[in-house]
Specification:
The chain has about 300 residues and is of the alpha+beta class. It has 8 helices and 12 strands. The strands form 2 sheets. Strands 1, 2, 3, 4, 5 and 6 form a 6-stranded antiparallel β-sheet that branches. A 6-stranded antiparallel β-sheet has the order 7-8-9-10-12-11. A hairpin with a 4-residue loop joins strand 5 (about 90-95) and strand 6.
Amino acid sequence: MSTNVGQARGWNDSPECWPALRLEDWEATRATLHMWTQIVGKVRLALTPLVNHWWNVPLYVSARGLTTSSMPYRDLVIEIEFDFLSHELILRKSDGNSASIALAPKSVADFYGEFFAMLRAQGIDTKIWKMPVEIADPVPFDQDRTHASYNREAVQKFWRILASSNAVFQDFRALFIGKSSPVHFFWGSFDLALTRFSGRRAPAKPGADRITQEAYSHEVSSVGFWPGSGNVKEAAYYSYASPEPSGFAEYRVRPSAASYRKDMGEFLLPYESVRTLSDPGTALFDFCQTTYEAAAVNAKWAREELERAG
């Protein structure tokens, strides 16, 4: 894809849309925000019916932050949005009422208490499991006073990266006419993800829990953005295939900064390598396309039936 095509698709290549964001500069805020999104995400999980591969769980990139999208509650429709421009968590209801709490330095326990107090005041009575998921050494939300950071500038930068990445992922998704996930933000793993499906069932993963078995019940190629943590100390784009076909790791992918991490079973592309290019949108699209090809070519997907011509 050329720069002209990237511009025609509306990918903004300005530095403001692809800002610098080192993990070490906002790790405390990232960890706190991760817990806050889990609290809100678990309300979405509680109020929505199960969708295949747990697609009722994630949040979505909005024009101002991250949103649950609309959810049913008794005779109402409600929505909860992290507004990273005004730095509020906003509850909107179909009866015309709304409420909000400030996003500011405060503990996870305080956020939990304020959030559920707001819900109760608006007549919404729901319960969630208070234990965080997909992190080491979890502490119940209402007891977590360790994570209490909120850096406004860093959070806005994070959202702008999500918004820019989301635009590219949406265009990449549009070229696939087979089964595909939405572009969605998983609050458990704290990443933006898009998954394509070959249409074939996948073998069961030995010893995997129910959640993993449902998530990977079919053959997939997945791409996403992750701000970093654990054994990856920088923001990065990733791509993997499940099950991974022979030859996947050796496939030549673009851009040149991308590489295969054998310990993770994924291709990784550092975000810093993307944002410093003259055309970051095209570089990210190339990563999406070539890592998908690594899966589809080596696993012999029926590409002529799954891809949109032209």
